[in-house]
Write a structure and sequence with these properties.
250 residues, mainly alpha, elongated, coiled coil
């Protein structure tokens, strides 16, 4: 029984190795044709390599003194066979797709050549357009350089004008400041003179008011003195008359 398992495993290993070589040959033979026609994937190749590795692992377990469970070995062998069948199926499907794409490519070769001719003409026209555009770009670059130079000159002239205006503005501000200072000084002097004159005028007016008050007071005093003199004279006359009457009575 162990010999039968070993024989089957060797068969599977050999078959996997042949499959692995077949897949390599397919990729080498059709590699260039498949590029750009179908997505190149080496999943089949990788899986066949895994099958070979699994078979070699099983063979490594079958030694004269190995007491591995035959059921376990059969399970591994069955799994290996299934994976090998799956890999074969994937390779067949992959080869059919490649062949179909190659046939379509060969059948449409004339159309592709015609399209290639049209594309070449379009490429030549595009190249001419590119040359024209390059010439226009060169002209635009020259114009831009001229504009840049003019702009630089304008900026320099503007800077000079701004500097001149700043200088004139500074001088004008200084002149205005000096003139304003002179006007303030003149106004200050005029105001001082007017104030002094007002003070003098006010002093004179105040003196006149005081004098008038004193005159009025003196006049009032003189009037009162006259009244007092009259009253005194009347009193003296009355006193003299009383003394005469008193003398007559006596």
């Amino acid at each position: 029984r162990r010999e039968q398992l070993e024989h089957e495993i060797k068969f599977v290993t050999n078959a996997s190795g042949v499959f692995f070589e077949d897949v390599q040959e397919v990729f080498e033979k059709w590699g260039e044709a498949m590029t750009g026609i179908v997505p190149v994937s080496r999943s089949d190749l990788n899986e066949s390599q895994e099958v070979v590795t699994a078979c070699e692992s099983l063979l490594g377990k079958l030694k004269p003194d190995d007491d591995s469970d035959e059921v376990d070995l059969q399970s591994h062998l069955l799994d290996t066979r299934l994976r090998l069948s799956k890999a074969y199926g994937q390779l067949v499907g992959f080869a059919e797709v490649v062949c179909s794409k190659l046939q379509q490519s060969h059948s449409g070769k004339a159309e592709l050549e015609a399209e290639a001719g049209v594309l070449r003409v379009k490429c030549e026209e595009a190249e001419q357009q590119v040359q024209t555009l390059r010439q226009r770009v060169d002209n635009l670059e020259f114009k831009v350089e001229c504009k840049d130079q003019q702009m630089q000159e304008l900026i320099e002239n503007h800077s000079k004008k701004v500097q001149e205006m700043e200088t004139r503005h500074t001088a004008l501000v200084e002149d205005l400041r000096v003139a304003h200072q002179h006007e303030v000084e003149a106004l200050t002097r005029d105001t001082s003179n007017e104030l002094e004159a007002l003070k003098k005028q006010h002093s004179v007016e105040l003196s006149e008011v005081t004098l008038n008050k004193e005159i009025a007071l003196l006049q009032a005093t003189a009037s009162k003195n006259e009244e007092v003199a009259k009253l005194t004279a009347a009193l003296e006359a009355e006193t003299a008359a009383r003394e005469r009457r008193d003398a007559v009575v006596s």
